Amino acid sequence: MPKQTFYNLTLDKRTKIEQAALDEFVEYGFDNSNISRIVAQSKIAKGSFYQYFEDKKDLYFHLIDIIVTQKMQAFTPFFKTYQDHTFSENFRDVFQIGLDFADTHPKYYLLGEDFTKKHPAFIREFVAKYQPLAVDLYMQVIKQADLNNELRERIDIPNTVLFINTLINNTMIDLIMDNRSKKQRDQVISELIIFIESAVKRA
Amino acid sequence: MPKQTFYNLTLDKRTKIEQAALDEFVEYGFDNSNISRIVAQSKIAKGSFYQYFEDKKDLYFHLIDIIVTQKMQAFTPFFKTYQDHTFSENFRDVFQIGLDFADTHPKYYLLGEDFTKKHPAFIREFVAKYQPLAVDLYMQVIKQADLNNELRERIDIPNTVLFINTLINNTMIDLIMDNRSKKQRDQVISELIIFIESAVKRA
Amino acid sequence: MPKQTFYNLTLDKRTKIEQAALDEFVEYGFDNSNISRIVAQSKIAKGSFYQYFEDKKDLYFHLIDIIVTQKMQAFTPFFKTYQDHTFSENFRDVFQIGLDFADTHPKYYLLGEDFTKKHPAFIREFVAKYQPLAVDLYMQVIKQADLNNELRERIDIPNTVLFINTLINNTMIDLIMDNRSKKQRDQVISELIIFIESAVKRA
Amino acid sequence: MPKQTFYNLTLDKRTKIEQAALDEFVEYGFDNSNISRIVAQSKIAKGSFYQYFEDKKDLYFHLIDIIVTQKMQAFTPFFKTYQDHTFSENFRDVFQIGLDFADTHPKYYLLGEDFTKKHPAFIREFVAKYQPLAVDLYMQVIKQADLNNELRERIDIPNTVLFINTLINNTMIDLIMDNRSKKQRDQVISELIIFIESAVKRA
DNA sequence: AATGAATGAGCGTTCATTCAT
DNA sequence: TATGAATGAACGCTCATTCAT
Question: How confident is the model at residue D44, as a pLDDT?
Fold first, then answer.
């Protein structure tokens, strides 16, 4: 967690630092990132960095926090309406919001990837904190669909949610990194939704 | 590619080095891995390391090569029988072989993960070489199922294969890393197969 | 070129580093010189070295720069008077200044030697920058002598200047390295001047 | 000095090793030369190298020995005739022989250069051994000229010989390294001879 | 609080030389 | 005697972190 000194900075300065760090981590990954470049980019002194953050890891986790928070905010509209919608509608909504978010903040996804893949050591503690948030989302959709009696018999909801989560996360990453044409992309998305719906809906 | 000197070593010594390297890379990842620990572990001199390998990267790629080769070998029985089996049978076979392989060599999976996630720079060249192998496997199963008229209408085979690939890879990793009870695990596997079958099979 | 951080140091510290480097390079030559000794000698941290200089080569060239600059400064008085003097006077002046400089900074000569002899790769770019300065000096003297009609017939001035340059440089180095008695030395110098004068002056 | 084992080798093998070493030393200089390349080039085992030579230096000095010996041989014809010739004739002879030798074995010159310039440490012992040979040559010419009463008054013969030696050595190196046109080269040589003759001959 | 120089452990890599066969 | 693998000290360089002002 950043120190109080960091929060005493103007929003402008804070944002500049966060941006520089995000760029650095996305470009080089955590291990090969380099504080010198971050402070040069954000035009603060090396010493100041350590007035704001405990260490490199502290900054990294701070970014993760921002991402998670912002992403959850993007989903607030969804939480107001999902109970009145069908599974298919909800699912498309969730997917679309996630995709828009990824489109608007592509680096957030990449950083998340870097993070979740590279650091089995960090991960336990972290997943414990954040994973539920993402999973919860799909859980809501699935539970609602279950209430609406849209799901196939004897479905194992927790695992199904994990499968969906995995599929969506990784497919999104593929889409972001491969930058294909919009048409190809829509095709993938459309197929993915059909795939998932086929997998979970009552025949 | 390792130098000839490496292949001149006894199998024992080679294996020891490969084991030490595998452990190191799995524990620390490529960037934080450290040759000093590898040579200490495998009880060779630092200089010997450079008689065997060009550099750290060379060793890393050598391990990837081993993994890919061994994994392909594990699948050879499958290739002899898949044409006479149904989709469900084939799919379970493929999954089971993959799982057995992962069980026998859990670190291979983790290294592969480390590799495919971390190094966009290496990856293009490498994926070009190896990715088709893995994907091909599921492609075979799906195509065979299509011939058997087991698939749902208007299925987009290439994307479907990618989804399946993603699901299986990531789920396997989850299973390997989480080490749950055998019972929980079987439950996950069973659910995954149902999930995929539901997603692709004709109703 | 040293980084700004180097120039931010006190003159004392800079000089200490330069001295240590000069000693090191003169004693061991560029290839066998060793940064650890330099930083130990100048009592700075290894890391600080790399805050001041790009790398070993950067420091080396910095010393060359100092030498060339200082040497040129030593000749400024000469440039104010040479037009009013005879060839013999000028030649003795130039020689004396060069010798005094070498006496005051014997290591400068040795470093220059090390430099010009060892690195055909560096040299082209560098000679292009500095060589003319040294040669020009003798060129001035000779041209002035020519204007004064002191030279023998059909003399080939460019080559003559090169011969003189060679003779003087190498003889100076011999004198510096051999440390003979002052008397022997004066004898050599006196003979060299006679030798050169005989070679170029009108009978 | 090479060990007896080296001289037990066939001439072919010895020559191959010497050639490889010469190429290596000329290309990289002593410090950056590398025994691995030499043994690879001459197709002997690394261990054999140390059966033949004490160490790297031993090989290096062996080459110097070869060069000096061969060069002296090139001058034997001269020693048979110089007493019957004038100074100018002798001087041109000596110069021509030296130049032919340099033309035939350009690498010998470069190695000699590398040697004499880089290693003030070695040099004392070595110069003591070989320098006289080279200097002697010019000494013969000059002494003969003195006997013939061709030299200017009160000439200091030892120093004069050193000057001539310096001039010729360095000019030859310049010619070898700069590879100018034959015409330019002849011009330099011709001028150098005039320069030296003017410097030493009676008016 | 802000600065940026100072620090030094640690890294990958090289290579002359020794050793075991 | 011939071989080439084994050795390890040593190098140049990096960078997160601390310190002094």
Answer: 95
* Total count of residues recorded for chain A: 203
Q: Report, as an integer, the average pLDDT of B79-103.
A: 84
Report all structural domains of chain B as residue ranges with CATH numbers, in order of start: 1-54 (1.10.10.60), 63-200 (1.10.357.10)
Measuring from the CA of residue A3 to each C1' atom, give the nucleotide at the shortest distance.
E1
Q: Environment class of residue C121 by beta-carbon count within 10 Å: exposed (0-12), middle (13-18) or buried (19+)?
A: exposed
Inform me whether the pLDDT recorded for A62 exceeds 90.
yes
* Distance in angstroms (rounded) separating the CA atoms of residues D184 and D190: 10
What confidence score (pLDDT) does residue D100 get? 85
Which residues 6-25 of chain A have a CB under 7 Å from nucleic chain E?
8-9
* Residues B41 and B20: beta-carbon distance below 8 Å: yes
CA distance linking residue A6 with residue B22, whole number of Å: 41
Nearest to C18 by CA among C44, C28, C32: C44
C159–D187: do the CB atoms touch at under 8 Å? yes
Q: What are phi and psi of B154, to 5 degrees?
A: 50, 30
Chain Cα centroid distance, residue B25:
15
pLDDT digits 0-9 by tens, C139-198: 888 998 899 899 999 999 999 999 998 898 888 878 877 778 889 888 998 899 999 999
Distances (CA, A) of C38 to C23, C45, C46, C68, C108: 9, 10, 9, 22, 17
Q: What is the mean pLDDT of residues A98-102?
A: 84
Which pLDDT score, from 0 to 100, does residue B179 have?
A: 72
Confidence label for A91 from pLDDT (cuts 50, 70 and 90): confident
Distance C171 CA to E3 C1' (A): 52
What tokens were used for A177? Answer: 């990194």
List of C residues 141-170 with CB within 7 A of strand E: none
* Distance of alpha carbon A120 from alpha carbon A115, whole angstroms: 9
Q: Picking from B95-99, C62-66, D175-179, which range would have the lowest pLDDT averaged per residue?
A: D175-179
| Encoded tokens for B105 | 């060599």
Cβ contact D59:D44 at 8 Å: no
Calculate the angstrom distance between C1' of E7 and CA of C40. Answer: 13
Indicate the residue type of B161.
V
Q: Is B68 helix (H, G, I), strand (E, B) or coil?
A: helix
Average pLDDT over residues B153-174: 89
Mean pLDDT of D66-90: 85
Axis crossing angle, helix C120-147 with helix C56-74, rounded to the nearest 10: 10
Higher pLDDT: A102 or A112? It is A102
A199 in contact with chain B, both atoms CB, cutoff 8 A:
yes
Name residues whose C-beta falls within 8 Å of residue C15's C-beta, 6 or more positions apart in sequence. none
Question: Rounded to an integer, what is the distance from CA D105 to the centroid of its chain?
Answer: 10
Please check the confidence at residue B113 and state whether its pLDDT lies above 70. no
| Chain C residue with the nearest C-alpha to that of D168 | C163
Q: How many residues does chain B have?
A: 203
In the 41-70 stretch of chain B, whose C-beta falls under 7 Å of nucleic acid strand E?
Answer: 46-47, 49-51, 55-57
Residues of A in contact with B174 (CB under 8 A): 162, 166
B8 touches strand E (CB under 7 A): no
Chain C: touching chains (3 or more CB pairs < 8 Å)? D
DSSP string, C19-41: HHHHHHHHHHHHHH--HHHHHHH
> Is any Cβ of chain B less than 8 angstroms from the Cβ of A34?
no
Unique residue bearing structure tokens 């320069």 = D195
**Spatial distance between the Cα atoms of D203 and C26, rounded to a whole number of angstroms:** 43
Instruction: Output the CA–CA distances (angstroms, integers) from residue C176 to B200, C182, D24, D129, in the order listed.
Output: 89, 11, 31, 21
Please report which residue ranges of chain A form alpha helices under DSSP H: 4-8, 11-32, 35-42, 46-52, 56-74, 76-81, 87-104, 106-118, 120-147, 157-178, 182-200
Name residue C201's beta-bridge partners.
Answer: C151
